[in-house]
Amino acid sequence: MYGHIFFRIRVDGKENIMGIKGPIIITPNHKTYIDHFFIGAAIPFYSNLLPIRSMAADWLFEIDRLPGIWWKRWFLLKPFGFIARWSLIALGAYPVQKGKGLGVSLRSPLKILEKGLSILIYPEGGINFKKGVREARVGAAFLARESGAQVIPVAIRGAEFFTLKSFLFGKRTIFLSIGKPFFVDPSKDLKIMAEEIRLEIEKLYNNIKMPK
After folding, report:
1. Fewer CB under 10 Å: which end of the chain, C or N?
2. CA 161/CA 146 separation, integer angstroms
3. What is the Cα–Cα distance from 98 to 111, expressed in whole angstroms?
4. Which residues have CB under 8 Å from 193's CB, separation 6+?
């Protein structure tokens, strides 16, 4: 809903997800802090892919417990932390513990996939504010290999150099391209699988025709 309110969303490739069922790993490139809203706006409300669970750093669920001066903790961290935690829960986000190995860090999304549901993971691992698609980490490839889930590559373009001003006062057009689902070859090295996923996203990204 929010994606359509503040942006014009243009989507290509919806036919690639018609009738598809989980488990599914949706792998978009990452351009802004609100990319998950763009993905939500691109997928029809009747799709079998919904609801989609997305990753969030574990500390985002614990903001109100962070150390600090008592008045900041009570008047800033606690209210904001409460809102942030329950907003993430409402969006279906799950905490990911970084730096503890793939088996531990990605335990939650793997359990979700084992239930035949859909998850969203950004292969780049973080926001890439520049144009293009940067090197992929192995998280998405690991989940695809361990779960046997199909991967749906998605490219987001038009959100580069996103600012608060453009969000509030400039209803810009965001272009999304949804690729065909595919399975990874589990016999391959994780880095090779990660690069294959990245190349599928990059192909979609480069084929998006931007207005001049």
Report:
1. C
2. 35
3. 17
4. 138, 141, 144, 145, 184, 185
Look up tokens 């699988």; give the residue.
193
d(CA 11, CA 50): 17
| Order of strands across the sheet that contains 150-157 | 8-12, 173-178, 150-157, 24-28, 118-120, 52-57, 94-96
Residues of the chain with pLDDT under 50: 1-2, 69-72, 74-75
In the chain the domains, ranked by start, together with CATH numbers, are 2-55+99-207 (3.40.1130.10)
- Quote the distance between the C-alpha of residue 10 and its chain's center: 18
pLDDT digits (tens, 9 = 90+) for 138-157: 999 999 999 999 999 999 99
105 with 56: CB under 8 angstroms?
no
Q: Which amino acid is at 183?
A: F
Closest Cα to residue 113, out of 144, 89, 137?
144
